[in-house]
Amino acid sequence: MLSERRLEVLRAIVQDYVGTEEPVGSKALTERHRLGVSPATVRNDMAALEDEGFIAQPHTSAGRIPTDKGYRLFVDKLAGVKPLSGAERRAIQSFLDGAVDLDDVVGRTVRLLAQLTRQVAVVQYPSLTRSTVRHVELLALAPARVMLVLITDTGRVEQRMVDCPAPVGENTLADLRARLNSRVVGQRFTEVPRLVQDLPESFEPDDRGTVSTVLSTLLETLVEETEERLVIGGTANLTRFGHDFPLTIRPVLEALEEQVVLLKLLGEATDSRMTVRIGHENDHEGLNSTSVVAVGYGSGGEAVAKLGVVGPTRMDYPGTMGAVRAVARYVGQILAES
Amino acid sequence: MLSERRLEVLRAIVQDYVGTEEPVGSKALTERHRLGVSPATVRNDMAALEDEGFIAQPHTSAGRIPTDKGYRLFVDKLAGVKPLSGAERRAIQSFLDGAVDLDDVVGRTVRLLAQLTRQVAVVQYPSLTRSTVRHVELLALAPARVMLVLITDTGRVEQRMVDCPAPVGENTLADLRARLNSRVVGQRFTEVPRLVQDLPESFEPDDRGTVSTVLSTLLETLVEETEERLVIGGTANLTRFGHDFPLTIRPVLEALEEQVVLLKLLGEATDSRMTVRIGHENDHEGLNSTSVVAVGYGSGGEAVAKLGVVGPTRMDYPGTMGAVRAVARYVGQILAES
DNA sequence: TCTTGGCACTCAATGGTCACGAGTGCCAGA
DNA sequence: TCTGGCACTCGTGACCATTGAGTGCCAAGA
């Protein structure tokens, strides 16, 4: 087990390295932190920390930098979540309050988060599967063509074209609209398939084909949109990554363009639990030198989606975690109000 | 006026420089192109081209690279639009055909364009002001709360919350919905304000407040959404910019995150006319070493929005222009079908 | 047993010198 | 007007010495 002082040395190394972006040596450490011991003692501690794999040397005659394992210990044991200043909180609130619709909320959130953390921000749209139905609308565009519009309690709207096997009467459509809504409004999306299962049977035989077609499009929409929509922003912050970043930045940008990777990135964060993935803890190879801080947000007590930031492993964890948490809370509030 | 051969030399320089990314000298030129003259002659031509400002030397003992003015001449006079191969055309078609809704069309387009040109792609959503109304839906969410949903002929959907001054009866809402739709469906968005102007007067005095509120939200939506939505992709391609790009890539990424800048970028491209903005021809300072190739696309004969790519001034103009034009055409077709 | 000062050692970074060679401009001759 | 020849420029890369931050280890002290 590591002694108290060695943990203190690790904390100092992480803080200095995050600040200066340069390997930190024993002498500099004792000068910048009141450790109460001499550089030689710190060197011994450093050697021990290196043996345990918490820090490493880029080359023999250089200072030490934290390893992924070192950051992990720092985040788990040594660092808290730094609360935002009052000014920052007010800025968040006023920035988000101006939003006019869901797209706007998400757009503003991503910009806000990127600006606040000076890193890349990722925000997921409220998930369909965890939302409830607010309304289903059916519009006849042509005799055998129907537009299906799906509205969620979080304000998200999805639409689909439906080509029907036969012309649809306005009465039939109105009938279907009414019955469909009476069954599904207020229900969770996951319940919808069960709730509409027997609906075609209650229609005239002539209309059953059409009804089935519309319903199956509806169900398809639910499935497809389970692959959630994401918005990212602040990619310009990637340029602050490091000096050598031609090789670093490329795979990160590539990873950020793949929905699948991004979704995995946000991972199993929940409303209450913030996740921090550090360096190699990310499955994706291109993200081996980045860390991800993510948390769920929701309109009620429950998370409907996630948001987070992606930055270099060498990031200000307490500050970033504070910003992510605060933004998630405010977005949750905004959604609950709408 | 420049002689025929000097233009030929310029063309060769542009082609070689685009290929190799290195300044090209007189000797290499005569070896790689059948100019029929000696290096010494080419040197004279180069000196002339440099006097005219079409090419420049990074330093005394280096080859020449084209200037913005040189690329301009190349694009205007020396290069055509390179048509895509059959395989490429088929790939475009099959890739876009799988799209399920407008979001998907736009998303696929941006990925396709980025992949095809290996540059950053920008696609604008079909503009509201140039579209026509397909349907307006009003939903009562609470006694005094209405959701307004606006659907365009290009499949775009916008929604807004409306807080009414007084509770709204379902009858009133149905009435308003019907009258509103009968007036505006099939009309251009720019016409809508005129068409609904006198609508409140035809309602009972009690309901006029509500009707006015709903209508003013509708009009607001039209105005707000005139600032169009854009999607970008392929930012990872920025890493192929050059060797020195820490300084180059930063302002580009920043510029790409600003809607306003992007919209200006797509500029006055129209359906028929493709625009090419080279280097300093872009107003935005961060984009001084990039070129933009943009063109309008539309469901009918008319452009409803624009798309394009952003890349280094040193780009393959004929190929890029070919890809941009082809993608715009296919997207237009897809939209016309939906 | 832990801490400390001293000391020799390592090695990246810095800067200077030098040879190389791609590329140029200019000129005289065809 | 084109061409071959030639002297000149200057960025590049190799080589080398210097410097200094940082280390590991050891012996002495608390």
From TrEMBL, chains A, B:
Keyword Transcription regulation in annotation: yes
Domain Heat-inducible transcription repressor HrcA C-terminal: 103-321
Keywords of the record: Repressor, Stress response, Transcription, Transcription regulation
Source organism superkingdom: Bacteria
SUPFAM superfamilies according to UniProt: GAF domain-like, Winged helix' DNA-binding domain
UniProt record similarity statement: Belongs to the HrcA family.
Protein role: Negative regulator of class I heat shock genes (grpE-dnaK-dnaJ and groELS operons). Prevents heat-shock induction of these operons.
Descriptive protein name: Heat-inducible transcription repressor HrcA
Phylogenetic classification of the source organism: Bacteria, Bacillati, Actinomycetota, Actinomycetes, Kitasatosporales
This protein's encoding gene: hrcA
